[in-house]
Design the sequence.
């Protein structure tokens, strides 16, 4: 079906913004498409990064490059630990900031805001300066990375949970109290279940921040290698295609989690 | 004007100090609540008889919701005491008092289904046969089929009934309703007013209902307390409040009133004579609420009769001549006139469209009159426009 | 005694429901020790690993530069380190501002179009599109940047097309040029721009835009008189959230550029890890942080937005 010229012109004009927006979105997906495509690449040479032929070998042998898998495992370990710690500390702090009176509220806000505003290189450099100054320069590794990751994830967790808590209708808690729930019951039966999606979201964010961090990690890692550091290293020497397998898996996993959350929310709302 | 709450004959007088009979209803004594420098509720005395449907009526900011929240235990009084069925509950935790609330925005738990919302209070108190009780309650509010749905899936009116069921199922000593119908549209609101009244009669519990809607208060409650600026202006049965207001605020907030300045000429046993802008009118002594020698003569617009100059009006009172129609609004059942009087004031007159009278036109001269028994006399020191703005819907 | 003549003047001054329901935030926040206890672990962590390190960084920047990692450093209040840092590295510093600024500008243009489309034109696809905006974010930053390397490669599709169109000389290239670096930065930090923009555009009542169409007739005038001013909070936080990491980034400059595109973050990194010149690296970091803080302050004040987050 072809439209008369005038109608087509108007249709394009009416949807111009949407079309442009979709074009921008396509732009953001071009490199992703390349990542997925390259995960099926059968390279002629490791030194030339281009698509030479199709294979599923990379998917069948993700650990053909053992050092890469070690790095992924290390990143997952650090990511999980950092997520648990940052989510725990951040959630407690968020509750304090929304629900409790304390002296120095604006200082606390600033303390939360600044790590997000500071460039990563400054955060990393500061930590390194501290570790070196306190004689830990030789002990850089897993634990210093973990400390750093918890630090930069904390602010994001606090902000995310705080937003969820602040958006919580507090008459719900009053209603629970009115209906004979003790403060503990009110918390576990009403407050926590309602804030939980926010906490979960914050934890996901923390994990992806931790898993993906290079700049801060690189300065404080010593001889430990995380996945981004591995990619950085091989970028100069020749990249194994399994790197793209990891990238694709991360993409698929995160989209699946987000979609599952969305579906759950929809089912809950019943629409 | 002063001491209205104590004088009010309808709503139960406050007992004299020292008299400590166990009162089986809800009793507030000298309750004051301040937020910083702002006094929300000022030395409030209130008795709500057991089993009654009691309305706290007032404009927003008058302290009625604060009063309700103190009864619920969500606020603590700055001073004073709250007693329920003889027990002091002033400082009892909200979850330890036999009081339940229907919140203004319903406050249904979004993560629980309707059944669990209604069951919430019973489960907290470890009651047996929760399922039976919940089903019976859902039946009462006609929501049995919705038990497995989440609150967000219900309409506003249905959510309102869930909130009601969730509170009622606990059979509280007092059920508090905080503007429960505010979020509903007019038609649904009217239907729910009747519904809630029916349920109250059926379960026989004490209901305390907070609202700013005077029509809602008058339709539903046995006793209405009009609140303004943290104190109760007047308390009584709806008809009594309407017919015999004791303050300009009540006169204006409940319906509309014409208030005309006058000088008291003579006080007899049952009648007070007032010189009102050169015309002598009489007011029943029981409806004269001032000791001063001047006062506001009040008359409801629908009590004012309107006629052509010289026409015999069906009223034994004096005729007030010299009016000119300055505005006419035809509203179907009645015609609402504004009549400019010789002394410059515009009076409101609502005339039923019974067909006995033709409708007057703008600029026509008219005479007004009313039966003396409908007039009331208020204190001149009160603002003649108090409550007029807030009362308008 | 209830004496109730006139409402107290204060009540007249508070016509809207001031006391009911009582100001939630104020009266509902609980006092006592619990708040401090809840706050303590996170505060301690941030103090120990953010505030103290920054202090340590400032101290490092004032050490005697003749020291070394092995012999240790001496605190000599060497303010000259700052002079040296600016003298030696003014080019990467300016380049960072320039590339970061350009990338932020491109992000603003692209991000505004995308956020506007999602907020007003996407209808029921809104949520899906939002998921798609953040989705690329979840594939490793470095892996994505490597993909750009492939896309912009000398024998790649993009370069060949540009050469065919004579927009690029026959031996012209994109890799190892500022174009590649800015493109990479723009790409990597776009979601930081889109999300805050979307958040503030989404709050605008579409009827306002219709009304402006009604009043101004010309949609462009309407946009600049109504939509743009109302979206300013999003523009402010979006540009900050984009500019700060973009100016501090060195991954794009390193992977997509050449030494001629070195940015200040890369200099700091190599001063720390390769040259072991801690005082210089410290001074450069402090300069960066100071510059960014100043920009944030000026920018926020001029844009008049307090609620950044």
Sequence:
């Amino acid at each position: 079906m072809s439209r008369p010229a005038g109608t087509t012109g108007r249709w394009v004009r009416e949807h111009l913004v949407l079309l442009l927006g979709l074009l921008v979105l396509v732009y953001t997906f071009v490199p992703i498409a390349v990542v997925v495509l390259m995960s099926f690449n059968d390279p002629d040479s490791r030194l030339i990064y281009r698509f030479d032929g199709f294979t599923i070998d990379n998917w069948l042998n993700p650990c053909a490059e053992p050092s890469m898998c070690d790095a992924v495992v290390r990143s997952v370990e650090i990511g999980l630990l950092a997520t648990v710690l940052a989510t725990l500390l951040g959630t407690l702090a968020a509750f304090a900031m929304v629900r409790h009176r304390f002296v120095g509220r604006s200082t606390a806000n600033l303390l939360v805001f600044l790590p997000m505003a500071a460039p990563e290189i400054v955060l990393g450099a500061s930590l390194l300066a501290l570790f070196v100054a306190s004689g830990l320069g030789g002990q850089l590794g897993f634990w210093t990375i973990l400390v750093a990751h918890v630090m930069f994830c904390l602010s994001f967790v606090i902000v995310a949970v705080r937003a969820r808590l602040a958006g919580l209708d507090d008459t719900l808690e009053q209603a629970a109290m009115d209906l004979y729930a003790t403060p503990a019951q009110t918390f576990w039966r009403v407050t926590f279940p309602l804030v939980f999606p926010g906490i979960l979201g914050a934890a996901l964010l923390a994990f992806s921040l931790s898993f993906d961090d290079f700049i801060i990690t690189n300065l404080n890692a010593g001889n430990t290698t995380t996945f981004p550091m591995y990619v950085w290293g091989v970028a100069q020497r020749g990249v194994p295609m399994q790197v793209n397998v990891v990238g694709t898996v991360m993409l698929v996993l995160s989209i699946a989690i987000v979609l599952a959350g969305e579906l759950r929310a929809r089912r809950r709302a019943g629409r | 004007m002063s001491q209205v709450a104590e004088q009010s004959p309808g709503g139960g007088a406050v007992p004299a100090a020292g008299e400590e009979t166990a009162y089986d209803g809800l009793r507030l004594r000298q309750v004051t609540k301040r937020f910083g420098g702002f006094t929300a509720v000022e030395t409030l005395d209130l008795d709500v008889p057991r089993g009654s449907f009691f309305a706290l009526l007032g404009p927003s900011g008058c302290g009625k919701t604060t009063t309700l929240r103190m009864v619920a235990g969500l606020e603590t009084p700055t001073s004073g005491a709250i007693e329920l069925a003889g027990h002091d509950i002033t400082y009892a935790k909200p979850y330890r008092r036999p009081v339940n609330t229907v919140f203004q925005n319903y406050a249904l738990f979004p993560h629980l289904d309707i059944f669990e919302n209604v069951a919430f209070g019973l489960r907290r108190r470890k009651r047996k046969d929760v399922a039976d009780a919940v089903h019976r309650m859902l039946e009462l509010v006609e929501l049995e089929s919705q038990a497995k749905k989440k609150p967000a899936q219900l309409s506003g009116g249905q959510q309102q009934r869930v909130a009601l069921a969730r509170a009622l199922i606990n059979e509280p000593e007092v059920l508090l309703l905080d503007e429960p119908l505010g979020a509903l549209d007019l038609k649904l609101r009217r239907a729910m007013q009747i519904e809630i009244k029916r349920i109250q009669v059926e379960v026989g519990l004490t209901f305390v209902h907070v609202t700013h809607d005077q029509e809602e208060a008058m339709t539903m409650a046995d006793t209405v307390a009009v609140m303004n600026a943290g104190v109760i202006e007047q308390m009584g049965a709806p008809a009594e409040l309407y017919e015999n207001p004791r303050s300009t605020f009540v006169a204006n907030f409940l319906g509309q009133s014409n208030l005309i300045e006058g000088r008291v000429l003579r006080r007899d046993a049952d009648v007070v004579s007032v010189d009102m802008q050169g015309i002598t009118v009489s007011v029943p002594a029981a409806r004269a609420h001032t000791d001063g020698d001047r006062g506001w003569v009040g008359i409801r617009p629908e009590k004012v009769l309107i006629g052509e100059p010289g026409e015999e009006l069906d009223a034994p009172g004096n005729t007030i001549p010299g009016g000119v129609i300055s505005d006419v609004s035809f509203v179907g059942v009645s015609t609402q006139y504004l009549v400019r009087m010789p002394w410059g004031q515009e009076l409101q007159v609502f005339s039923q469209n019974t067909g006995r009278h033709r409708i007057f036109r703008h600029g026509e001269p008219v005479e007004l009159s009313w039966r003396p028994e409908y007039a009331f006399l208020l204190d001149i020191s009160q603002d003649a426009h108090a409550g007029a703005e807030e009362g308008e819907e | 005694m209830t004496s109730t003549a006139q409402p107290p003047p204060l009540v007249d001054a508070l016509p809207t429901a001031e006391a009911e329901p009582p100001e939630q935030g104020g009266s509902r926040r609980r006092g006592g020790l619990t708040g401090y206890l809840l706050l303590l672990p996170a505060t301690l962590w941030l103090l120990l690993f953010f505030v103290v390190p920054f202090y340590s960084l400032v101290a490092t920047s004032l050490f005697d530069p003749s020291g070394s990692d092995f012999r240790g450093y001496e605190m000599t209040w060497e303010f000259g380190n700052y002079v040296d840092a600016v003298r030696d590295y003014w080019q990467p510093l300016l380049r960072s501002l320039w590339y970061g600024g350009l990338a932020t500008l491109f992000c603003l243009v692209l991000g505004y179009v995308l956020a506007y489309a999602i907020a007003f034109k996407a209808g029921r696809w809104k949520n899906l599109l939002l998921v798609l905006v953040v989705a690329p974010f979840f594939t490793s930053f470095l892996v994505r940047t490597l993909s750009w390397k492939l896309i912009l490669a000398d024998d790649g599709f993009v370069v060949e097309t540009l050469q065919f169109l004579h927009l690029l000389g026959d031996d012209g290239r994109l890799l190892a040029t500022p174009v590649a670096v800015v493109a990479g930065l723009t790409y990597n930090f776009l979601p930081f721009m889109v999300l805050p923009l979307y958040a503030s555009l989404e709050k605008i009542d579409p009827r306002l835009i219709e009304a402006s169409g009604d009043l101004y007739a010309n949609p462009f005038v309407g946009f600049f008189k109504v939509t743009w001013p109302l979206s300013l909070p999003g523009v402010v936080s979006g540009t900050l959230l984009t500019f700060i990491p973009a100016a501090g980034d060195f991954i794009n400059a390193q992977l997509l550029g050449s030494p001629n595109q070195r940015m200040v973050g890369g200099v700091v990194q190599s001063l720390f890890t390769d040259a072991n010149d801690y005082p210089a690296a410290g001074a450069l970091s402090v300069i960066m942080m100071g510059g960014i803080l100043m920009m944030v302050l000026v920018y926020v004040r001029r844009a008049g937005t307090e609620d950044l987050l």
